[in-house]
Write a structure and sequence with these properties.
Strand order of the largest sheet: 1-2-5-8-6-9-10-11-12
Structural class: alpha/beta
Largest sheet: 9 strands, mixed
Number of helices: 20
Shape: elongated
Radius of gyration: 26 Å
Number of strands: 17
Distance between the termini: 66 Å
């Protein structure tokens, strides 16, 4: 096997003989520039670079090494020598999980920046080896990218012991057209050794249906005059089968480049084949954000990906990773489990294990939390589950949708959220993004056949733990108006607690709350009377 190492020492040794003063000046300038930059802006060099083939592969894409060139520092064109770039964490004492990462680029180039090197920069800090695939572009040879991906997966398994990797838990993650290639790998792998153990498809190109396809990607892959059979062979929703590995799928509703319908179609195809799939749909963000740190939903996506990797590595291996990872920066005061998945894990496990039917899940914050604690007889009578967590915002609830709602298979989910966002519990957030997070929760529910029941924010005059914010009534009213319109436009339930509990000034009626926010135990009966008709159906 031919291995190329990034050996900078050898480079400088050879170059110093040519011009010592020039090199020393370069090193001084380079050091000062690194010092001036933020750490996050410093590129991460791969630990090793390995060619996929010792000799020229049987099928060529028509390019040579001299044809390869780079644009904008990260877009690689006309690759003739495919390779994997391996990035390792600082602590390599124990075998580590590895993620084969496939950048996009519409099969016209390989976008190795925010969908390659930036991925490694983030995941290596969390104890995960990243193998970025620099694959050959098709150039009229449609099978070449997939043959490179299969070869890379086989190489990672064959070399796992030598490279200090966990051999039986190797995943693949792809973005855009790289998501199509990763999706091709999880559905059309050439051997069991090439089959990934799990997949992560980020805003992936999936379908050749002209109503949703990314024409440029398929034009590069199969050409302008492809046959119906060729299109069907590369429309991944038609390639899903029961033996393929589980996948996490993520995309944004407002993606104008590769419509979110691609992701939803893949998810539905996997569901039809009973293949485990996890879905993360964000309301805004567009396309191409990869691991760019300024992406507005960065923490939510990062957490979903890292948790998914750990879940697929296995419990024992996951515990090893937690020992390697010394610090996780999360929105919830630095806690690793910032969405608090553990809060209801035992109850959820019991419901699932005992096949207990759940009529509805009530998702929320401390208002729902107290409701479940103080009125357990109500939830027991109507076969409902209270899943409220004190102080949570819509971001954390959105992250909990899979574990605390979807996995319980309820008929309905009552979503009461947004008060803590307005109180700035996790920092300032716009009304638009609050509503967007609630809409994303509804998208996830609908995708799993669960009817969303959107609840109005309760009337609040103030948030006593953050009094400088002033009167929240106008903001609550604006959000409620938009949520009601969204619920009615989509045929969802609209649960209007606000009108039933509201005083003339827009705050809570006298005698219903001790602090302008949380209802008294008896006040929950008003809320119960509003939801009972839906639970009795």
């Amino acid at each position: 096997m031919c291995e190329n190492f990034c050996n900078f020492a050898s480079f400088f040794k050879k170059t110093l003989g040519m011009n010592k003063h020039l090199i020393l000046s370069f090193l001084l300038c380079f050091s000062l520039s690194i010092y001036a930059e933020k750490v996050d802006d410093v590129p991460l060099a791969p630990t090793k670079v390995v060619r996929l083939y010792d000799q020229a592969p049987a099928e060529s894409n028509g390019y040579t090494d001299q044809d390869e060139w780079v644009k904008d520092g990260h877009k690689i064109y006309q690759i003739a020598t495919p390779r994997i770039e391996l990035y390792y964490p600082a602590d390599t004492r124990k075998p580590m999980p590895v993620l084969l990462t496939i950048p996009g680029g519409a099969y016209a180039y390989v976008s190795s920046g925010n969908e390659g090197g930036d991925v490694a920069k983030y995941l290596c800090q969390r104890g995960i080896v990243v193998a970025v695939l620099q694959y050959r572009l098709p150039n009229g040879h449609e099978n070449i990218p997939l043959s490179d991906a299969c070869r890379a997966m086989e190489m990672l398994r064959d070399s796992a012991a030598a490279w200090n990797l966990i051999a039986d838990k190797i995943g693949v993650m792809g973005f855009s057209a790289g998501g199509h290639l990763a999706g091709s790998l999880v559905t059309k792998y050439s051997s069991e050794k090439a089959r990934p153990d799990y997949g992560i498809l980020i805003y992936p190109v999936i379908s050749t249906d002209s109503t949703m396809w990314h024409r440029g990607s398929f034009r590069q892959l199969v050409g302008e005059h492809a046959t119906a059979e060729q299109y069907a062979a590369w429309s991944l929703d038609q390639q899903v089968h029961s033996a393929m590995p589980p996948c996490l799928l993520a995309a944004c509703t407002d993606d104008k480049t590769v419509p979110v319908d691609n992701t939803l179609l893949m998810y539905q195809a996997m569901r039809a084949q009973h293949v485990p799939a996890q879905l993360l749909i964000l309301p805004t963000g567009g396309h191409g954000w990869g691991f760019r740190r300024d992406f507005e939903r960065r923490d939510l996506v990062d957490n979903a990906i890292v948790q998914y990797i750990w879940a697929n590595v296995g419990d024992k291996k996951k515990e090893q990773l937690y020992q390697i990872v010394k610090k996780e920066v999360r929105a919830n005061d630095g806690k690793k489990d910032w969405p608090q998945y553990n809060r209801y894990q035992a109850k959820n496990d019991s419901i699932i294990a005992n096949h207990i039917a759940v009529k509805a899940v009530f998702m929320g914050n401390s208002i729902t939390d107290h409701w479940g604690r103080w009125r357990p007889e109500f939830f027991a009578k109507y076969h409902c589950a209270a899943r409220g967590i004190s102080a949570q915002t819509t971001y954390e609830m959105l992250a909990r949708m899979q574990a605390d709602v979807v996995d319980l298979h309820p008929e309905m989910v009552f979503i009461l959220a947004g008060a803590n966002d307005l109180a700035c519990n996790r920092g300032v957030i716009s009304e638009e993004h609050i509503i967007g997070n609630i809409r994303s929760m509804c998208d996830i529910a609908v995708a799993h056949g669960i009817r969303p029941m959107i609840c109005s924010l309760l009337p609040h005059r103030a948030f006593l733990w953050n009094t400088p914010l002033g009167n929240p009534v106008p903001r609550i009213d604006r959000i409620n108006v938009q949520l009601k319109a969204y619920a009615e436009a989509n045929g969802f339930g609209w649960i209007d607690y606000n009108s039933a509990m509201r005083a003339l000034d827009g705050g809570m009626r006298e005698g219903l709350s001790p602090d302008e926010v949380h209802p008294y135990k008896e006040a929950y009966q008003i809320m119960e009377d509003i939801v009972k008709p839906y639970l009795k159906k």
